[in-house]
Amino acid sequence: MSSNGKYVYLQTFGCQMNVHDSEKMLDILAEHDYRPTKDIHQADIILLNTCSVRAKPEHKVYSALGRLGKLKEKKNHLIIGVGGCVAQQEGKRLLDRVGHLDLIFGTHNLHRLPELIHDVQASEGPVCAVEFRDEVKSLDVFPMPSNGSKVKSYVTIMQGCDNFCSFCIVPYVRGKEKSRPSENIIGEIGALSERGVREVTLLGQNVNSYGKNLPGALAFPQLLARINEIEGIWRIRFTTSHPKDISEDLIGAFGNLEKLCKHIHLPFQSGSDRILERMNREYTRKQYMEKGEQLRKVCPDIGITADVMVGFPGEDEGDFHATLDLIQRVQFDNLFSFKYSPRKGTEAAHFPGQIDELTKSRRLRVLQDLQKEITLKRNRALKGRCEDILVEGASKGSKEEMTGRTSSNKVVNFKGGLELIGRLVKVRIEEGYANSLRGKVI
Ligand code: SAM
Ligand code: SF4
Fold first, then answer.
1. pLDDT at 136
2. Best probe residue, ligand 2, of 205, 278, 343 (max atoms within 8 Å of C-beta)
3. Is the pLDDT assigned to residue 94 strictly greater than 60?
């Protein structure tokens, strides 16, 4: 290991996959003695790991980059790099908008960061690496926490997506769907368990189709069954599932794998068949609701959450009410709801019937008010129940309070000391709020 003693400041935008990619970046850089810092003024290298799934996170990246220009003026040797989805999408074009950039690295190149930083230091001009690779090496980069430092961890099982939903930029910026060999995943989780990790969340854009096109790979339910056998791992979660690929075996796994948490994130996007078809989602509202019913039959306590959007091109009041109706019928535990945002290069960006901002905002407000009521009702209904909670750490509000999650993925706060961290405790739920629960250790 060289001893360059340089500091890296890394800012992450977007989803869990980006959060985990950022952990990978810091890990790779640490091997080359780049130390992480939270103080941007201390940094020798500033990296932004970006998201382009909607216009809002993308705009945030450009504003952050604008501010960094002033820092660069004061600190000549500062290296500023952009990675992730905006980097992949824009490539060299980013240089036209942001003159003070030194490095652009795409979603298939994060494992090359040290080499790319070296290239920046050795060259006169900016460096850009955004080519897609057949063999996605970054899939097999995995940061290992130091012993006992982490209770839960993300594990990448695949990357990319072949679905091409008409609104979505992901297949263009993350490339074709690629699964990671099952043995590598199992090996990583075994090593995590030896370091004290008790809960793993398997990550991929469409985990249900894990193993497709990878000779020798297990199917997703079989992969879960193998992970279920790993000693020291107590809880398994995964995200994200696509409703069209959710198999009977996977639904059955919620009934027969004791470590599989009772929670599924199953985005539905719209409750209108007409809109679902235009979105290229390949399921109907009826099929979606049937999957929900089957899941609740196998596992009555399962927490169901989803993504939904309003204002997709052509969505009329009837379509919107079909979405509200589906929400009423399914009774989700929580929803991530978005206004449709046209993405350059996607099919839907050119569809007729684009909806104005005011209508999108109004529909979003109505939808969120409805979901707030349902979430509160479902949280209050847990009053008096006894839940297993994996204690993650001190709660944000108070040092005397600990926080953790139910198997169904609801946040619970309760009185307790730091010695509980990493333990599975029984908590009686005393109150249900809009965003969390409160309870007492028993
Ligand atoms: N793979 C997941 C699936 O199939 O549902 C979704 C991944 S996407 C990164 C996360 C969420 O962002 C989507 O479920 C969708 O609700 C939202 N999203 C994606 N593209 C969007 C767009 N153009 N405008 C608004 N929301 C969008
Ligand atoms: Fe995007 Fe659809 Fe793939 Fe999800 S399944 S990442 S929404 S294209």
1. 65
2. 205
3. yes
For tokens 């204690």, what's the residue?
391
pLDDT at position 144: 87
The pLDDT of residue 138 is above 80: no
Please give the full DSSP string across 235-269, using - where no structure is assigned.
EEEEE---GGG--HHHHHHHHH-TTB-SEEE---B
80: β partners: 46
C-alpha span between 88 and 103 (Å, rounded)? 12
| Distance (Å, whole) CA 256 – CA 225 | 9
How much distance in Å is there from the Cα of 350 to the middle of ligand 2? 18
What residues contact residue 284 under an 8 Å CB cut-off, 6+ apart? 273, 276
CA distance 290 to 397: 40
Q: Average pLDDT in the 371-375 region?
A: 98
Note the pLDDT tens digit of each residue in 376-422. 999 999 999 999 999 999 998 787 899 999 999 999 999 999 999 99
Q: Lowest mean pLDDT of 131-135, 225-229, 380-384, 424-428, name the range.
A: 131-135
Q: Which residue type, as a one-letter code, is found at position 78?
A: L
Distance 340 CA to ligand 1 centre (A): 9
Of all ligands present, the nearest one to the C-alpha of 364 is 1
Predicted TM-score (pTM) of the model is 0.96
Residues 6+ apart with CB under 8 A from 342: 55, 348, 349, 354
CA 52 and chain centroid, separation: 14
Long-range CB contacts for residues 289-292, cutoff 8 Å, separation at least 24: 289/326, 289/329, 289/330, 291/243, 291/246, 291/251, 291/266, 292/266, 292/330
pLDDT tens-place string over residues 279-298? 999 999 999 999 999 999 99
Query: In angstroms, rounded to a whole number, what is the distance separating the alpha carbons of residues 163 and 242?
Result: 10
CB of 52 within 6 A of ligand 2: the answer is: no
- CA–CA distance, 153 with 162 (Å, rounded to integer): 26
Place of tokens 């009423």: 328
**Average pLDDT in the chain:** 95
CB of 176 shorter than 6 A to ligand 2: no
245 CA → ligand 2 middle, Å: 12
Indicate which ligand has the atom closest to the C-alpha of 312: 1
pLDDT confidence band for 133 (50 / 70 / 90)? confident
- Length of the chain counted residue by residue: 442
